[in-house]
UniProtKB/TrEMBL annotation, chains A, B, C, D, E, F:
Binds 2 manganese ions per subunit. It comes from the Bacteria. The keyword Acetylation does not apply. Its cofactor is Mn(2+). GO terms for molecular function: agmatinase activity; metal ion binding. This is Agmatinase. Keywords: Hydrolase, Manganese, Metal-binding. GO terms for biological process: putrescine biosynthetic process from arginine, via agmatine. The keyword Cytoplasm does not apply. CDD domains: Agmatinase-like. It comes from Kibdelosporangium aridum.
Amino acid sequence: MYGPDVTFLGVPRCDLDDPSSYADADVVVVGAPFDGGTSHRPGTRFGPKAIRTTDYLGQHGSRPSLALRTDGLRDLRVLDAGDVEMFSGDAERSLTTLRGEVAKVVRAGAIPLILGGDHSIAFPDAGGVADVLGHGRVSMIHFDAHADTGDIEFGSLWGHGQPMRRLIESGALRGDRFLQIGLRGYWPGSDVLKWMAEQRMRSYEMSEIVARGLSSCLTEAFEIATDDCDGVFLSVDIDVCDPGHAPGTGTPEPGGLSARELLDSVRRICLELPVVGIDVVEVSPPYDHADITAALANRVVLEALSAIAHRRTGEAWDPLRPLLDGR
Amino acid sequence: MYGPDVTFLGVPRCDLDDPSSYADADVVVVGAPFDGGTSHRPGTRFGPKAIRTTDYLGQHGSRPSLALRTDGLRDLRVLDAGDVEMFSGDAERSLTTLRGEVAKVVRAGAIPLILGGDHSIAFPDAGGVADVLGHGRVSMIHFDAHADTGDIEFGSLWGHGQPMRRLIESGALRGDRFLQIGLRGYWPGSDVLKWMAEQRMRSYEMSEIVARGLSSCLTEAFEIATDDCDGVFLSVDIDVCDPGHAPGTGTPEPGGLSARELLDSVRRICLELPVVGIDVVEVSPPYDHADITAALANRVVLEALSAIAHRRTGEAWDPLRPLLDGR
Amino acid sequence: MYGPDVTFLGVPRCDLDDPSSYADADVVVVGAPFDGGTSHRPGTRFGPKAIRTTDYLGQHGSRPSLALRTDGLRDLRVLDAGDVEMFSGDAERSLTTLRGEVAKVVRAGAIPLILGGDHSIAFPDAGGVADVLGHGRVSMIHFDAHADTGDIEFGSLWGHGQPMRRLIESGALRGDRFLQIGLRGYWPGSDVLKWMAEQRMRSYEMSEIVARGLSSCLTEAFEIATDDCDGVFLSVDIDVCDPGHAPGTGTPEPGGLSARELLDSVRRICLELPVVGIDVVEVSPPYDHADITAALANRVVLEALSAIAHRRTGEAWDPLRPLLDGR
Amino acid sequence: MYGPDVTFLGVPRCDLDDPSSYADADVVVVGAPFDGGTSHRPGTRFGPKAIRTTDYLGQHGSRPSLALRTDGLRDLRVLDAGDVEMFSGDAERSLTTLRGEVAKVVRAGAIPLILGGDHSIAFPDAGGVADVLGHGRVSMIHFDAHADTGDIEFGSLWGHGQPMRRLIESGALRGDRFLQIGLRGYWPGSDVLKWMAEQRMRSYEMSEIVARGLSSCLTEAFEIATDDCDGVFLSVDIDVCDPGHAPGTGTPEPGGLSARELLDSVRRICLELPVVGIDVVEVSPPYDHADITAALANRVVLEALSAIAHRRTGEAWDPLRPLLDGR
Amino acid sequence: MYGPDVTFLGVPRCDLDDPSSYADADVVVVGAPFDGGTSHRPGTRFGPKAIRTTDYLGQHGSRPSLALRTDGLRDLRVLDAGDVEMFSGDAERSLTTLRGEVAKVVRAGAIPLILGGDHSIAFPDAGGVADVLGHGRVSMIHFDAHADTGDIEFGSLWGHGQPMRRLIESGALRGDRFLQIGLRGYWPGSDVLKWMAEQRMRSYEMSEIVARGLSSCLTEAFEIATDDCDGVFLSVDIDVCDPGHAPGTGTPEPGGLSARELLDSVRRICLELPVVGIDVVEVSPPYDHADITAALANRVVLEALSAIAHRRTGEAWDPLRPLLDGR
Amino acid sequence: MYGPDVTFLGVPRCDLDDPSSYADADVVVVGAPFDGGTSHRPGTRFGPKAIRTTDYLGQHGSRPSLALRTDGLRDLRVLDAGDVEMFSGDAERSLTTLRGEVAKVVRAGAIPLILGGDHSIAFPDAGGVADVLGHGRVSMIHFDAHADTGDIEFGSLWGHGQPMRRLIESGALRGDRFLQIGLRGYWPGSDVLKWMAEQRMRSYEMSEIVARGLSSCLTEAFEIATDDCDGVFLSVDIDVCDPGHAPGTGTPEPGGLSARELLDSVRRICLELPVVGIDVVEVSPPYDHADITAALANRVVLEALSAIAHRRTGEAWDPLRPLLDGR
């Protein structure tokens, strides 16, 4: 929608209006260049372009992972549907349009991988998946500094601080299969927290993560996420990372995960869980520097794809295996 | 709306819900922190804050102009009503709200001075003035690189490329009292130009300005603007200046006016014409550097206020008069 | 002193010349916009403004901590006295003025929370506290990459590399109750280290912190700090963090703490120790990017306030408690 | 070569290895992502991508000029051949490759429009044109702060300070049909100036341009350029503009043209002279801010194309004609 | 004082404590890395280093001017005395030290060329010259957006808004031989203007410059400056230029001169007047981008030196002379 | 080669053409301002200058390490030979020149410490050492995100992705004494990995490092490195660190080491192993912000020198020893 028409690292293009163009896809990338829902620094409308292209390697649709020995862009059939037209000045219409596009991808049996855009899009992203796979049948693993469970803000239901509430309220997702990782800071207040507790959400604030260890929290979350659910939606707000690792975002909250921790977590999720949809959101290029936030988001996508490809091999992955063991 | 609650260089605050608070105002500053209508780089939501505060002098509500010997903030009664709440994700609602607030100011007999925000707000800004002073009774002098006369864009009527069309279509302003200065570049196309010609708009493209001289064009424009109209609305899109002078904007078009030319033009307009409303728009701080664009916009506001104050003295102004002539 | 007159996240204002205005305060924020003492990159004069306002949430004087379940700005009575006028070109006069203002706060029974400014201000900050509570009765916990115990530099006693020496030499603070955390790099030399050892200071260089663990070092430091002292002054130089987490500072030294480690340390100090004064210094906005350093400093302040509020409840804090446990 | 594969504002692609793909082209854009010849700040390897895409309008291969009433991308058949592979670590090989590609375009009867890259490429650019049209048959109009007539530098013949000497020495271009506009500063020294005078080059230093007026200098230059030559090569080094208008370049020299002056000059050249080749060079995105230098270079290209399209209509152009005269 | 010890573009070093080292100098460069007097954005302490080194050419002590055909660094004997130690936290002491150093240079018969630093240093710069050449015998040509004639600010006599008042009050310079060029904006107020008028200063505000032409104003100023005076001090505050041309400064005021106008003015002054001292001040690298402000200041210095060298040849300079006329 | 001629933090200069000038050196710093080999973002040509000078302390050739109690610049005889002239447009010639210069240093019995420049220089750096000490007698410890073992790229053997292959292919270094630490991401592909395995290289990918711990990996690597080798070359590509800690580099790969981990690793290597050569590469100042990457590289150099100095004392180093233990 902004700038030249490019695909994620050069993967083939498809057209969501032409089902044959993505009939055999494993993953379809969808750009959601929308920042009309942000409560502070805008700019995520340029996120899809930045996440698609920020890489120092040639952009020819191949990325062999050193860690996983899979090529997420080759071992899977990954297509890019381009950007959905989303006028930032009309959140409601834009989100509705997106939801329909996401559902098309799911109906074709592919995993939608949506590049935000601000986090408002989680509502149509996970909602569109649930529309096809069944309301209440998809659990959520949500990386974020913020709970995004606000009610009405600036007079609207549709901002980036509210999608998780809308998903649960609408019945698309179950509150008790909603896992949040990395929360911290000074929002929301007690009313909203009370509502969250009533929904039986499970939110790991950074203090708990530091005290227990991230790995232990993830293991517990995985158990909840896979209990009586058919698939997992993974929503990655880049601000779950510390601003030192992800400065280019709208509402940076100090004290977050390192980039390494996020990448390792995404890898584990996609290796161990039946992921049915992904979004990567809140990359704001105007506030980035040296493109490090966009590069991180690009690697989050590749980490997910590489791990999904590995999971489909059915083999176990051993982090202790040396890189050059000759196999 | 974003960040701390401050007024333009420290002028007193008023409350638009309390007419007594601005009953005797000459000018009321209104913040319009809205960037939901921009077609490219966002960030103008932070424009009102930046324009209000970007100045190296103490912010105590006084600014004696060296050039004009008036103090726009003291000789006039200037109040600041703060920001109108404008959710960028809902352009239509936000613009409607703003229009009502602008009209309140006009009804009180004051000049509304709106700080944008993207140029979408020109529709409620000039429209709100015309609602009170009479449709067709206010002419427009519009500094901009762009005509902003598009029809439907991104499926919406309300973006920053369309307000001037909406103003004329709605009858709020007359096309043949619509003066545009500084247009250039590659938009709009012939259909829109044809519509503009049909409205009998008068648009000075930069080639004409260079060939004839800016001063000559302004003089001609002033004659049209004051023919059978009761007042003039001045709309300053900061991108009328060259990107070297105003980098912090959403849609920079090379080859524009210098900062000096813009300041001198604004001065002449406010000295010579019956200005009834002003907006200064399209300052995008995330793309600014060293705050030079915000500083320029701040000075555009001060230039206007100083000149309005001078006009009210009824005295002529002589640019040849030395600064230290002892009077 | 620079820019508009704002308070820390919108807390009420008080006036240090009017004791009644802060008679019942728990904490009084004081701005110290001084960078005349810095030995390298200046800019900390804009630190108070940046620390007060860098936050993406509305600035209305409330911040409920997710981690601690207290609202530091509501559960405590926090007031902001604005900036002390400190001309950077006259360090001695400026520091003297500040010392008097700090003492006023302490005399009123409140905790002074000074926002720097360069670290020169630690001398009047901790000195002003000691002037009221008694010389030798206040211990110091000092987070910093640098010892700040130099003698005469650039021909002056008053630079930002010397305040800790001045505090001890003057008897305001005891050397053997002076705890330094995070030192590293290549300054000072052996002469100064010898002087420090003679004062029986306890300085934790990063190698020791890495080898022993930060938590263990803190526990040891807490014991010293509370041995025969009536209160603890907490001085946080933001450069204790790694430049990746705090680039916006004057003398960045690679290899420091993470933002998470600093926040957790500040929390523990304010939960476990009788803090009687705080300063947060060396935030230099011109060298910041995406405002991440200012945001971190803002969160250091909030972490301290939230924890002080929690300490006053008398309840224990358990980091393992889940966020949504329903209490 | 760097990043995604895109064409100039979305014009169709062609393949220089497939002559049928550009058989009917009027203009072929060629990217020269090479900065191995620069003597100071590098980064122009990213120039082709930046010049192709830096525009806030949709990139669909159309740009109707307000000033000229032509659409350079539609009225002409403009194709983009993508980037030539140019390893910056091997100047000689890279320049040789480029020369062959440029000649292919000329042989097909099209105008090559090369996007640099550093100015080293002027040698293969103008040389490749002369190889086809005849050595000595093409004159040069060269906008630059620097003469680029150095001999051996850093032990090499091929840097960006030397291409103009190589062109003349090799006989590809005549020295007495070599027009330079905008020179200034402190290079080269008298030896090189003597060589230039011996070649009978005509170089307009900024003092002469200020004293005589740019327009007068251009008129004189045009006469020389069209005397006994078959075509004109236009080489635009963006550093001919003042650093305030073009900061993103490798060797900025204060005191240059404004962006407006450059655009107007390029327009006149392409309206009045038989242009047979163009390059636009020395845009260095890492040193740009808010993309203003890349935007200017993009507009230089469009100005040239719009004017070439106008020249082909055979009609005169009148800058005094109002934009909305209804024709 | 900050960073490595370098000289202006590689000219030889001298030592002000060793008169023999600069006995035969024509010009002695002195660094004044002081920003303790600035009222807003600091950073000029890094000005001397930036002005000395910001150039893309090799730094070997030679710069042949294309415009003037002189080599200011070779035709004159230019030495660099390095930085004076100036602690920014003690303005009074620092300025006193500098005054003594400047006087040493003048006593040796050389022109002091001081690189600031903030404009506070004009007091010791011009004062030190007058101390040797005689109070009242040196006139001042002062390029600036600001009059710098304030009285007491921030409780001090020594800030960067006051040096011109101090010079006149102390009798070092005559008010009626004080020429100011480029003033604009909103400072100072009428009291100060009244004082200035009483001193019979002559200040050219930008409105007068635009109305009369810069050249005409300069000619008039030159007549005043040379009436019953023995020499002229040239003080160039880089903020006389528009922020688009000089963003890297502390108190940018929109609407100033272009870089070209400043360079041409400096050239004329040094060609036509008996310059006895120069300072170039207010370059603040932290706010610069792409180093364009530092580059401009470097060229101001070179322009002055080239013109002084030309003046000493006794020949006239003709701007109409073509660069390659073969002489 | 670029900018003023300075030495590493002010150490004395030597001249590689004059062996007597470095006859008794322990370490000779050599600048390699070359970025002609980079495959993406250039700028490392300014690395040597940035690494030499980026420090907030005075640059007088002394740096006492707080952690190690040695002064690497005083306890060792460290000289700086300045920059080797390396034209980035001719990689082959430039690298050959550098190799000869490095060998000169080794022949004099000193450790060459080369400041890059891009990683292409590892071939002449380690190759030049091996030329003197014997091919196959020097092992390599290589910190990097990338293996740098590519074959032909962009048609050349000499880019920054290939030096390690060239070193092994040429026999200069043994593949089975080649230790790589920090690899990650999506390059190279299986062919190159197969070649690496055949050479019996040992490469620690980040997954293995996270799973086993960095310390354990280093210990294992040290055993291999010292098995039947006479010395160790340490090559530090700054991109081994996470982009949050080292943004100023050409090919940033998220998920790397922290600055603290790199510094501690370098310390251990230089304390425990017989280091015979060092290079620090890939610092690209145009992409740095607040100079944090250059500062880190400067500290990597100092950490190495401090540890080498400590190793020569023959004493053990205890990280648990408190800083102020009085010894």
